[in-house]
Amino acid sequence: MGVDLGVSNVAVLSDGKVFGNDHEYKRRKERFEELHRSFSKHRCSPDNKKHLSKLQHAYKKMKNHRNNTLHGISKYIAEKYETIFMEDLSISGLRKRSRSRSMTQSYDDASLGRLTDMICYKSEDTGHTVRFVDPRNTSQICSGCGCFVKKDLSVRVHQCPRCGLTMDRDLNAARNIHSLGLAGNPFPA
Ligand SMILES: [Zn+2]
């Protein structure tokens, strides 16, 4: 199973399963940021304590929601699939991804790093295996015919001029990650 993590979705699997962007987290985060601004403004007012407890409450709810989501996704993946291939995002292009992610994805790289860790330890618990592959060009190569189809991040659909394959960009990436893993091409640790 190939897993593509978090550009416009949280995770897309090579069998077509999609864990979409976490809109509720985004809402909670905006609420927290709004409260934070208000708290900063009223720092010296007598209402300060009330603001602070509201702020702490919002933070806790936001964090709990995200953790529950990450646990749910990692549990599903780790239990369902015997061999899981993922991109090694510590290797290349992480910063570029961060910048592009902040435009589309509610989770930052730290959250996606935690998701990766959770998938790893939960797979270990169930006797399943995680292997990492080289992340370079997984979104650019056609998973149908292997030709290079250059596209920037705003292009959400992969469309191959050679073989005609048309599919969601992240699914195409997940399928490439799967093929790379099957080809026994894990990135050397
Ligand atoms: Zn093609």
Average per-residue pLDDT, rounded, comes to: 88
Unreliable spans = none
Shape: elongated
Beta-strand residue percentage:
5-15%
Number of strands: 7
Structural class comes to: alpha/beta
Question: Which ligands are bound?
Answer: zinc ion
Number of helices: 5
Helix percentage: 40-55%
Q: How is the biggest beta sheet arranged?
A: 5 strands, mixed
**Tally of structural domains:** 1
Strand neighbour order, sheet with most strands: 3-2-1-4-5
Instruction: List the helices and strands in order.
Output: EEEHHEHHEEEH
From the alpha-carbon coordinates, what is the Rg to the nearest angstrom?
A: 19 Å
The first-to-last residue Cα distance is 20 Å
Helix/strand layout:
Layout: E1 2-5, E2 11-13, E3 18-19, H1 23-41, H2 48-80, E4 83-87, H3 94-104, H4 109-126, E5 129-133, E6 157-159, E7 166-168, H5 169-182
Parallel strand pairs: 1-4, 4-5
Antiparallel strand pairs: 1-2, 2-3, 6-7
Helix pairs in contact: 1-2, 2-4
Bound molecules: zinc ion.
Zinc ion is lined by residues 142, 144-145, 147, 160, 162-163, 165.
